[in-house]
Specification:
Strands 2-1-3-4-5-6 form a six-stranded parallel β-sheet. The protein has three domains: 121 residues, Methylthiotransferase, N-terminal domain (Rossmann fold); 246 residues, Alpha-Beta Horseshoe (pyruvate-formate lyase- activating enzyme), CATH 3.80.30.20; 55 residues, Beta Barrel (OB fold (Dihydrolipoamide Acetyltransferase, E2P)), CATH 2.40.50. It is α/β, with parallel strands linked by helices. Helices cover 34% and strands 22% of the residues.
Length: 438
């Protein structure tokens, strides 16, 4: 019997890429996955275009595989994801050893593309095809799963923020039909999943067709998922402030399976910079929105995204960002120094001095860290419900997530993967909490 070929996938960036990598591995049914690139018959890089110098990092990674390709001429190397979409044929021009380049909307065509590479042909597909890739993908294999899973419900974005490449690499907003999402969710639960995170570039703009033919909002989808037996927790990311609808805010207060955690990027606290970013909300409207969300769910933990050093940002603009962060009190936040993306409107503007931008980023991150640690320390003495996901680093230790997405570790060998248990928090570390059974 011929041994199955082996596939190594390296995933960059967002949770949606994690989900996409799973689906690509499933599409390549003739391969089994390996964690060792030197064992692989195919290496696939699933790339992200958000971080600074994203394309150059991919080319650098490809350079590391030249020796493997030389020693193993039949090795196939592919590039997928948003850098593949943005760079296209340029990847093969710069790195001729690459056999396959596929964009994020075309990976359902991977089996046909892989077959072409076996005959020595190069395969390139960065189209935005009309057919639904999720409809074309085979049913997911029935293998058991861990207790948490990602589930893409929406892709693309119509917002065209001045700094962002997503509309160009992922395309316009498209939402999956609710019935298909519910079928996939039930399948995941049958295989051991207890918590599902709904994914989308702009997930709260979800507007998929409902089972009855009507348009579904994200809130309606969540309420249908709430009825799935065995599904205990629902989360979603990433959201836009302009799409936090009344019914979604209400769901945070009334749906027991919707966890009290919300990632709601604002990017800046300066109205002037927000306008230059084409964000179409103000600092004041964002703060009023936070008030409404907290009125619906007082214990909700807020998370956000920030860009510092955006073109034309002054110290006064940056101070407005610090003021907003102080007002919100984030449990988590992700902050980045602006870096130009070719083809975006902001790429044509004069950038802030690099040293100044570095200084602002350090000051912002120091403030966010203080808030995060303060909120974590406030959890000491409280009892939270923890979904345990895996063994910890220490003997007899288990690690999981609270409903607030805090990492929690407990020294208790009787705890099982997939178990949800009440845990009393006894101490707070830099990035996690420690607890005991309540």
């Amino acid at each position: 019997m011929t041994a199955p070929k082996k596939l190594f996938i390296k995933t960059y960036g967002c949770q949606m890429n994690v989900y996409d990598s799973e689906r690509m591995a499933e599409a390549l049914a003739g391969y089994e996955q390996t964690n060792a690139p030197e064992e692989a018959d195919m290496i696939l890089l699933n790339t992200c275009h958000i971080r600074e110098k994203a394309a150059e990092k991919v080319y650098s990674e490809l350079g590391r595989y030249k020796g493997l390709k030389a020693d193993k001429p039949d090795l196939k190397i592919g590039v997928a994801g948003c850098v593949a979409q943005a760079e296209g044929a340029e990847i093969m021009r710069r790195q001729p050893m690459v056999d396959l380049v596929v964009g994020p909307q075309s990976y359902h065509r991977l089996p046909e593309m892989e077959a072409r590479t076996q005959t020595g042909e190069k395969a390139l597909d960065t189209d935005f095809p009309e057919e639904d890739k999720f409809e074309r993908l085979k049913s997911r294999p029935k293998a058991s799963r861990g207790p948490t899973a990602f589930l893409t419900v929406q892709e693309g974005c119509d917002k065209f923020c001045a700094f962002c490449v997503v509309p160009y690499t992922r395309g316009a907003e498209v939402s999956r039909p609710a019935a298909r999402i519910l079928d996939e969710a039930r399948d995941l639960v049958e295989r051991g999943v207890r918590e599902i995170t709904l994914l989308g570039q702009n997930v709260n703009a979800y507007h998929g067709a409902g089972p009855d033919g009507s348009d579904y909002t994200l809130a309606r989808l969540i309420w249908d998922l709430d009825k799935v037996d065995g599904l205990e927790r629902i989360r979603f990311t990433t959201s836009h402030p302009n799409d936090m609808t009344d019914d979604l805010i209400e769901a945070h207060g009334t749906c027991s399976k919707l966890m009290p955690y919300l990632h709601l990027p604002v990017q800046s606290g300066s109205d002037r910079i927000l306008k230059r970013m084409n964000r179409s909300h103000t600092a004041e409207s964002y703060l009023r929105l936070i008030e409404r969300i907290r009125a619906a769910r007082p214990d909700i933990l807020m998370s956000g995204d920030f860009i510092v050093g955006f073109p034309e940002e002054t110290e006064a603009d940056f101070q407005a960002t610090l003021d907003l962060v102080e007002a919100v009190q984030y449990g988590y936040a992700y902050s980045f120094k602006y870096s130009s993306r070719p083809g975006t409107p902001a790429a044509e503007r004069a950038e802030v001095d690099a040293a100044e931008a570095d200084d602002r980023l350090q000051r912002l991150q120091a403030l966010i860290t203080r808030q995060q640690r303060s909120i974590q320390e406030s959890m000491v003495g409280r009892t939270v419900n923890v979904l345990f996901e895996k063994p910890g680093r220490l003997e007899g230790q288990m690690v999981g997530k609270s409903e607030y997405l805090h990492a929690v570790h407990v020294a208790d060998p009787t705890l099982k993967t997939g178990e949800i248990a009440p845990i009393r928090i006894v101490s707070s570390g830099a990035n996690s909490l420690a607890g005991t059974r309540a």
